[in-house]
Amino acid sequence: MLAARYNTITRFLPDLLKTFEFASSPAGEPVLEALAFVKPLKGRRRPIQGWEVPAKFLTSAWRRLVFPPPPMPAGSVEKRALVVASTEALRTALHRHEVYVPGLRKWGDPNARLLGDTAWEAARSRVCEELDLDPKPERILADWTGRLDAAHREFAGGLAANPAVRIEQQGGRDRIILTGLDRLDEPASLRELHKEVEARLPAVDLPEMVLEVDSWVPYLGDFTHVSEANSRMDDLELSVAAVLTAEATNVGIEPIVHDGVDALSRDRLFWVEQNYLRAATLSRANARLVDYHMRLPLVQAWGGGELASADGPRFITPIRTLNSGPNTKYFGTRRRGVTFYNFLSDQFSGLHGILIPGTQRDSFYILDGLLERETALRARGALRHGAREVLITSGPSPRVRGAPATSRFAL
């Protein structure tokens, strides 16, 4: 698919290589060698020989395209595939900061903003204290080395003693083969427990639950008209509850319409949806519910509201909208999508929600949910995002912790 874009790439690649002066770390040197070879190829007429191509940067998939197998002549090189492979390697190396443009901020030298030796020695104790790290890296490395060695020995010993695991050679490569586990029947006590739990779960109608919660905490009153005028309609809360139910279940307004009830008429529900449901009213109602939820004794037993986690599902958008964007990793080559980023406290309540374009990285929005929340929760503990842990402390100037032990950051 990329090779088919050769004509598009050759329109901008020569100007790109002529305009920017790229530099690299040792890991990016093969990419720079490839770019230096590709740069004068535009006006070259004689065939490219395989021995002169710097091929260290090629992956196995690209190598098969750049050096095609028979019946092509031995040593022949596919010029189009080589140019496209070099461009893709440049893009990957830029994202990894193995190749950079000196002087730029985002795509510049990743080491340019690190503290110098003198400044680092002066700030070492303070930074290590803020990051909760030992100033001497030897202790940390020794600890990780010991844990890695113990885990390797435990795995190797268990692998040899486990009859359900064997190693076989398939296609010239060693592969681990796992024997399937036998099915375990559910004991009678577990089936009885399932019956006891199901008997205790109340059968609640969702619209009734929305109204019952409003009787505990009047959150439906936070849905005000877009003009901020006070409405005099009867049973407005019932109409708002019906619209919320339709939106939450994703069934639309039509199944909620009841012609015999004025508050549930079609025109009334559509009018309420257009004038009362918006981000500001939803945020106010959610904040009221979270504040009520956090004071419940059972909820306080779960956690103190000081820990939060952030993650979000991704949705494909069938039409072009302001917040949607293409992202081949999540939505394919021809689709656009968005990410709904959600913040959940250790009390199992939502702190904040934000819509992110499909082209943006989630991690850029972690602090937004903690600094722009409207609830009384004050998360100042560990916030996990993927494999990285970030510690947030409350206050006007939050501190972010969780940098790798081998990095130096001026926070």
Query: What is the residue-mean pLDDT, rounded to a whole number?
Result: 82
Largest β-sheet summary: 8 strands, mixed
**Which overall shape is indicated by the principal axes computed on the Cα atoms?**
extended
Uncertain runs: 381-411
Count of DSSP H/I helices: 14
State the end-to-end CA separation: 43 Å
Radius of gyration: 30 Å
Helix content percent band: 40-55%
Number of strands: 12
**Percent range for β-strand residues:** 5-15%
Give helix and strand order, one letter per element, not per position.
HEHHHEHHEEHHHHHHEEEHEEHEEE
Structural class: alpha+beta
What does this structure look like?
It is a single chain. This protein has 411 residues and is of the alpha+beta class. The protein has helices at residues 6-19, 29-38, 60-66, 79-95, 117-130, 137-161, 188-200, 206-216, 236-249, 266-276, 279-294, 297-302, 328-331, 366-371; strands at 23-24, 99-100, 165-170, 173-178, 308-311, 314-317, 325-326, 336-345, 350-357, 382-385, 388-392, 400-401. The strands form three sheets. Strands 5, 6, 7, 8, 9, 10, 11 and 12 form an eight-stranded mixed β-sheet that branches. It has a two-stranded antiparallel sheet with strand order 1-2. Helix 2 packs antiparallel against helix 4 (79-95) and helix 9 packs across helix 10. 17% of the residues are buried.
